[in-house]
Amino acid sequence: MIKTGKDSFIEESKKTLEEIYEMLHSLKGISLLKLQKEKTALVMVDLINGFTREGALKSSRVEEILPSVAKLQKACLLNDFPILAFADSHSMVSPEFESYPPHCLAGTSEEEIAEELQQVGGYQLIRKNSTNGFLEEEFRHWLKEHDKIVNFLIVGDCTDICIQQFAVTLKTWFNKENRKSRIIVPMDLVETYDLGIHNGNLVHVMALYNMIINGVEVIQSVEV
């Protein structure tokens, strides 16, 4: 239930949004080389054809971050940072299609990593059948096998869905284990889509804010 009238809700929200906007623009960046490669991994989430160039959920907003992500990916590869790449991959019976249009079907070009990132290479591919990559057994196995990794740079899409779910779940998992971690999300390397009432700018900002209040380290950018 919304416990206020429409006009009051909009007016109060406007003030809050202004404060969140200013807070996000005041955030600083970090240098990649100041992160210890023995403790840090790059995670690229759903930078695949089905969210960039084809299909029901393709978005030019997401496509536009590909060159910058490829630049960071290349720097991580040259400096021996582990790299993971999640890729949505569904069958036609996926219950997820009750919430989203059919997308990224297994065996189609939609589930393939974007060409720019394929050309750089150096990543371990993990296909996922939900919006939250943390739930995949292959990732949980990777996490166990790389128990010295406590810093994660998370880039990709969508800010308000797969990025937010993975980042917050990963952070709360480390909290549960009583282990300090840095779950880092660069604002310039995550994006979402516009579709009907799904206002890309609004949900992008609110997702960044929600991650911050849940302990995720949102930053402006990564210097490479």
TrEMBL record:
GO BP terms: pyridine nucleotide salvage
Single GO MF descriptor: nicotinamidase activity
CDD domains reported for this sequence: cysteine_hydrolases
InterPro entries, per database record: Isochorismatase-like_dom, Isochorismatase-like_sf, NIC1
Isochorismatase-like domain: residues covered: 40-170
Pfam families: Isochorismatase
Name of protein: Nicotinamidase-related amidase
